[in-house]
Write a structure and sequence with these properties.
Elements lengths: L1 E5 L3 H12 L3 E6 L2 H11 L4 E4 L3 H14 L3 E3 L8 H10 L3 E4 L5 H16 L7 E8 L9 H13 L5 E4 L6 E8 L5 E8 L4 E8 L3 H14 L4 E3 L1 H4 L3
Parallel strand pairs: 1-2, 1-3, 3-4, 4-5, 5-11, 6-8, 7-8
Antiparallel strand pairs: 6-9, 9-10
Helix pairs in contact: 1-7, 5-6
The structure holds nicotinamide-adenine-dinucleotide.
Length: about 240
């Protein structure tokens, strides 16, 4: 496949290495607005675009892909409040959008286990949940997007909980602790504790390659499809 790489930062570099090793061509790399001016014409020569940029720019990049009729695999987070209008536009323009707040296959399986565990424990109120997420010190947001997804999934699967708290405890809320240390790529632990035992599940990412693998697999899967998709579709979860 001919791939357009929209955003050539940490994830862009990781995706380039992996995509080339799988026999794909990086047809164009665009890393800022000046490069858009110079390289827009190359976009329509591509089979698919992979977008890892910044929240403020993601939507305009998505629209550029719709305009030339190529599928776009979006990794950028932080634009989901506009999700409704973007998916509407995708359908209207007969486009293709693949999005995920976390492209790691392991994390997406972890999401499923987390939902199931929360649901199984709904009737056993002696088990109390808690979550810890650990990331490197350069990460600016807390809790992580993945932790928020985990908490939201727990709340929708277990109606004893209506929200989450950060750094404090409150009845009916899941306490989330964010730790920033060293070079940690991302570790998420969910525990359910009673007076007599504890169930703990943990996902630990070793590096960014796991995100790149998911994004490139998504690009290969989405090629020649139309519509709006996410990791549940790719992994048949
Ligand atoms: N979904 C996932 O699995 C996943 C995994 C890792 C990171 N992310 C998200 O992906 C995004 C990028 O992460 P990163 O670590 O690569 O960040 P980064 O800061 O290393 O790279 C972002 C790149 O976007 C470029 N950019 C800025 N404006 C642009 C424009 N108009 N057009 C094209 N490129 C532009 C910047 O120059 C920069 O190189 C973030 O939102 C991050 O939270 C998602």
């Amino acid at each position: 496949m001919k791939i357009a790489l929209l955003g050539y930062g940490r994830m862009g570099h990781e995706i380039e290495k992996l995509a080339v090793s799988r026999g794909h061509t990086i047809q164009v790399k665009i890393d800022n607005e000046d490069e858009w001016t110079a390289k827009t014409a190359f976009l329509k020569e591509c089979d698919v675009a992979i977008e890892f940029t910044i929240p403020a720019i993601a939507i305009s990049n998505i629209k550029r892909c719709f305009a030339v009729g190529i599928p776009v695999v979006v990794g950028t987070t932080g634009w989901y409040e506009h999700f409704g209008e973007v998916t509407e536009l995708c359908i209207k323009m007969d486009g293709c959008l693949f999005y995920a707040s976390n492209y790691s296959i392991g994390v997406n399986v972890f999401f499923e286990i987390n939902r199931k565990l929360a649901s199984l424990l709904e009737s056993y109120t002696m088990y109390k949940p808690a979550m810890t997420e650990i990331h490197h010190t350069l990460k600016l947001d807390a809790p992580s997007g993945t932790a928020i997804t985990l908490a939201k999934d727990m709340i929708s699967a277990n109606h004893n909980y209506t929200g989450y708290t950060v750094g404090t405890t409150e009845e009916g809320k899941i306490p989330v602790t964010s730790v920033r240390e060293g070079n940690v790529t991302g570790t998420h632990t969910v525990s359910w504790t009673s007076d007599v035992d504890q169930i703990t599940i943990t996902h630990e990412a070793y590096n960014r390659l796991g995100f790149a693998i998911g994004a490139v697999l998504a690009a290969e899967w989405v090629y020649s499809r139309k519509g709006v998709f996410t990791m549940k579709d790719l992994l048949s979860l």
